[in-house]
C-alpha cells in the first residue's frame, strides 16, 4: 500500500522522535557524569591483602598474599599455586565472568550445589561483579564464604 | 523421506533458521569483541554500559519463526537453537527462564504477523513491540537470577542490585536487537509490500492454543525449578 506524504511524515516522526529522545538521554547522562568514557580503573599497582576462605564449621583458611595489578580471582588462583587449595571454576557467558564451582582444602571438596554456593566479600561487602573484574587494593580483606541458601 | 521433508517449505525454513541460529551462536560465542569503553554509574555501581553477548541472534530467529512460520514452530525453532547450542557451549539452571523468554519473543513475532502489522506504516510499532519483548525477556530472566538467590539476597535491595548489575546486558540487548530487527524485518516488509509474498501457513486452532501455552508452561516450570 503506497503511503501519502502525510503518512510518510508520521512514520518518519514515529521513528525519529524516540531516536532523538534516546540520544538526548545519552547526552544528559554524559553531562550528569552518569555515563563516562575511557578505560575503567584497571590495576592498582602492588597490593598486599589477606585472603580468607571460610568453609563453614569454623574451618577457615587464611593467607597474606602480595600481587601486582591483581583481581580477587587472581588472589584465589595464587593460593592454588602454593598447593594449599584446589579450585574448579566455570566461565558464565551470561555474566561475562568466572564463577567458583568448588574449592578443595585438606582433601575435602566444597562444591556448589542446590544448597550451597561460593560468594566473595571485599572488606565485608559482597562482590557485585565477577571476582575476575574487581581489582584488589592494599590492605583489603578478601573473604570467600561457602554459603548455604 | 528426506525429499518429502524438504518439499515442505515450512519444515525447510524451520531447519534453515535452526541451522543459521545454531552455527552463528556456536561460532561467535567465544569470538565476541570487547565492549566499547563507555561506563555507566547507577545505584553507586560503575560498570561497562554494554556487555556483549549473542542474545540478538536467537532473538531474531525467535521473531522470524513467529513471523514466517507460526504455530508450533514459534517455540520449536528458538528452543531447538538453544538446545543444540547449549549442548556445545553449556548452560546452567537459568535455561528454563531463557528458553521461555525466547519462546515469548517467538509469540510476539507470530502476533505481529497475525494482526497484519507487517506494513511500512507499522514499522514504528514493530520496533516498539520488539523493544517491549526484549525488556520482558530481561526482566523475566533476571527475576529468575534473583529468585535463585545466587549472590543476591531475597530482599528488595537484592532485587534492585540484581537488575542494576544486569543493565549492561539489557542495554546491549536493546541496541543489538533493535538494529537486527530493523535489518531483517524491514526488508521482509519491503518484499511483502512489493508483492513478493510471505509463505502463507494455515494454523490449526489447537496449534494456536499450544503455541501460547508452551511458553507459559515453560515459565511455570522455571519458577518451580527455583522454588523447589
Draw up the topology in text.
The complex is a heterodimer of chains A (about 150) and B (about 230).
Chain A: H1 5-31, E1 35-37, E2 46-54, E3 60-68, H2 72-81, E4 85-92, E5 97-105, E6 108-111, E7 116-122, E8 125-126, E9 141-148
Parallel strand pairs in A: 2-9
Antiparallel strand pairs in A: 2-3, 4-5, 5-6, 7-8, 7-9
Chain B: H1 2-7, H2 9-28, E1 38-42, E2 45-48, H3 55-69, H4 73-89, H5 95-114, H6 123-148, H7 156-193, H8 205-227
Antiparallel strand pairs in B: 1-2
Helix pairs in contact in B: 2-3, 2-4, 3-4, 3-5, 3-7, 4-5, 5-6, 5-8, 6-7
Q: Gist?
A:
The complex is a heterodimer of chains A (149) and B (228). Chain A is an alpha+beta fold and 149 residues long. Helix content of chain A is 25%, strand content 40%.
Overview of the molecule:
The complex is a heterodimer of chains A (149) and B (228). Chain A has 149 residues and is α+β, with helices and mostly antiparallel strands. Helices cover 25% and strands 40% of the residues of chain A. Chain A has two helices and nine strands. Chain A has helices at residues 5-31, 72-81; strands spanning 35-37, 46-54, 60-68, 85-92, 97-105, 108-111, 116-122, 125-126, 141-148. Chain A is elongated, with a radius of gyration of 24 Å. Chain A starts with a helix and ends with a strand. The relative contact order of chain A is 0.17. Chain B has eight helices and two strands; from the N terminus they run ααββαααααα. The mean pLDDT of chain B is 84. Chain B is globular, with a radius of gyration of 18 Å. Chain B has a two-stranded antiparallel ribbon with strand order 1-2. Chain B has helices at 2-7, 9-28, 55-69, 73-89, 95-114, 123-148, 156-193, 205-227, and strands spanning 38-42, 45-48. Strand 1 (35-37) of chain A pairs antiparallel with strand 1 (38-42) of chain B.
Amino acid at each position: 500500500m503506497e503511503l501519502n506524504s502525510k503518512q510518510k511524515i508520521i512514520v518518519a516522526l514515529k521513528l525519529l522522535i524516540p531516536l532523538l529522545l534516546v540520544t538526548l538521554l545519552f547526552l544528559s547522562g554524559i553531562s550528569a557524569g552518569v555515563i563516562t568514557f575511557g578505560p575503567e580503573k584497571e590495576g592498582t599497582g602492588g597490593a598486599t591483602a589477606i585472603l580468607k576462605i571460610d568453609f563453614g564449621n569454623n574451618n577457615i583458611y587464611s593467607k597474606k598474599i602480595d600481587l601486582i595489578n591483581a583481581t580477587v580471582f587472581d588472589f584465589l588462583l595464587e593460593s592454588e599455586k602454593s598447593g594449599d587449595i584446589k579450585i574448579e571454576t566455570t566461565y558464565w557467558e551470561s555474566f561475562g565472568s568466572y564463577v567458583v564451582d568448588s574449592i578443595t582444602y585438606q582433601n575435602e571438596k566444597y562444591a556448589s550445589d542446590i544448597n550451597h554456593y561460593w560468594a566473595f566479600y571485599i572488606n565485608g561487602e559482597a562482590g557485585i561483579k565477577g571476582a575476575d573484574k574487581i581489582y584488589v587494593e592494599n590492605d583489603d580483606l578478601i573473604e570467600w564464604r561457602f554459603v548455604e541458601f | 523421506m528426506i525429499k518429502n521433508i524438504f518439499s515442505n517449505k515450512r519444515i525447510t525454513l524451520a531447519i534453515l533458521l535452526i541451522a543459521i541460529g545454531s552455527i552463528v551462536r556456536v561460532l561467535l560465542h567465544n569470538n565476541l569483541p570487547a565492549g566499547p569503553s563507555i561506563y555507566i554509574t547507577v545505584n553507586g555501581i560503575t560498570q561497562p554500559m554494554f556487555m556483549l553477548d549473542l542474545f540478538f541472534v536467537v532473538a531474531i530467529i525467535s521473531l522470524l519463526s513467529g513471523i514466517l512460520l507460526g504455530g508450533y514452530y514459534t517455540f520449536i525453532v528458538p528452543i531447538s537453537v538453544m538446545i543444540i547450542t547449549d549442548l556445545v557451549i553449556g548452560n546452567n539452571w537459568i535455561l528454563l527462564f531463557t528458553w521461555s523468554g525466547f519462546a515469548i519473543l517467538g509469540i510476539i513475532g507470530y502476533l505481529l504477523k497475525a494482526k497484519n502489522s507487517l506494513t511500512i506504516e507499522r514499522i514504528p510499532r514493530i520496533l516498539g513491540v520488539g523493544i517491549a519483548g526484549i525488556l520482558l525477556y530481561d526482566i523475566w530472566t533476571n527475576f529468575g537470577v534473583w529468585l535463585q538467590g545466587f549472590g543476591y539476597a531475597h530482599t528488595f535491595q537484592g532485587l534492585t542490585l540484581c537488575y542494576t548489575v544486569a543493565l549492561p546486558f539489557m542495554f546491549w540487548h536493546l541496541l543489538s536487537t533493535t538494529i537486527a530487527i530493523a535489518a531483517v524485518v524491514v526488508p521482509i516488509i519491503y518484499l511483502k509490500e512489493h508483492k513478493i509474498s510471505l509463505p502463507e501457513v494455515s494454523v490449526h486452532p489447537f496449534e494456536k492454543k499450544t503455541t501460547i501455552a508452551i511458553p507459559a508452561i515453560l515459565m511455570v516450570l522455571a519458577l518451580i525449578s527455583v522454588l523447589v
